[in-house]
Amino acid sequence: MLQQTQVNTAEPYFHRFIERFPTVDELASSSLDEVLKMWSGLGYYARARNIHRSAQLIIRQHKGEIPSDYDSLLNLPGIGKSTAGAILSLSGIEPKPILDGNVKRVLSRFFGVKGWSGESKVSKELWDLSAKSTPTDNFQIYTQAIMDLGATICLSRNPNCSICPIQRKCYAYQNHLVDEIPSKKPKKKKRTESKYFLMIVFDGNKLFLEKRKSKGIWGGLWSMPEIKLSDDPKEWCAQQFANKILSVDSWEPFKHSFSHYNLYIHPIEIRMDGQFMNKMDKPRTDSFNLEQLSSLGMSAPIKELVDQLY
């Protein structure tokens, strides 16, 4: 959960997740829909698919025990060098370097590493420094400490250098470069997309949803049909369903930002008569009442629309 997400955001999700899936076996035996439901709103849903798949592999290939060797951890979906290193180091099993966002910032400032950490040359230098800095004794304390140092003191904005325990040897602090190191990621203008999101309601209370493909944005989640603004929502419905349209209502558009583009969502509420009658053979579609909707994995903007609709 802490991949790409801050602690204060992930913490409530973590507690709910652990309560629902207290063991690897419980997680592995649950459906992906259940896992995605518990992840709804946290974003970066590939992480949820990866942790579910990893749990199944741990049951099948490692007799239900999380592997304690580096290479086996790296073979699990969603676990890279830093995550594997954190698991082994924080568990007190083996000293391994880590390089999450907080650690990158601490090492960059302390050793005076200039440049953006996403550049291969800079990344290699930081990995080398992380490996050299990790002690062979008390390595679990060190690993937790350097993560906490970056999370609580060596902040990206307004760092608390006055109380930092390593300020006397910090290159950035001693050279008044704290605001310049590490270098920020070069800005890239985000592309934009605009789409109709069709909120199709049958028989007064059943919402039509589609299950998205496992890969891509909101992979594996239930969502509303999306069509281009150049397409006609009424015509689209006529092609898909045998039902009669009762009403069409346009809602206020809003923006949802992804890491690489901005999506402008134009919600269209469409009421149709009778029970859901699909003209097309699409097994990944269905209509759901309010009680059923509460058990589905949905992205934050879709859940927000559903809450407004009901």
What does this structure look like?
The chain has 13 helices and 8 strands. The two termini are 30 Å apart. The chain has 310 residues and is of the alpha+beta class. The longest helix is centred in the first third of the chain and has 16 residues, at 46-61. The chain folds into 3 domains: 1-79, Orthogonal Bundle (Endonuclease III, domain 1); 99-187, Helix-hairpin-Helix base-excision DNA repair enzymes (C-terminal) (Endonuclease Iii, domain 2); 191-309, Nucleoside Triphosphate Pyrophosphohydrolase, CATH 3.90.79. It is 40% helix and 16% strand. It is elongated and about 75 Å long. Strands 1, 2, 3, 4, 5, 6, 7 and 8 form an 8-stranded mixed sheet that branches. A hairpin with a 3-residue loop joins strand 6 and strand 7.
> What is the assigned CATH homologous superfamily of the largest domain?
Nucleoside Triphosphate Pyrophosphohydrolase
Distance between the termini: 30 Å
- How many strands? 8
CATH topology of the largest domain: Nucleoside Triphosphate Pyrophosphohydrolase
Query: H/E order of the elements?
Result: HHHHHHHHHHEEEEHEEEEHH
Largest sheet: 8 strands, mixed
List keywords for this structure.
310 residues, alpha+beta, Endonuclease III, domain 1, Endonuclease Iii, domain 2, Nucleoside Triphosphate Pyrophosphohydrolase, 3 domains, eight-stranded mixed sheet, 13 helices, 8 strands, 40% helix
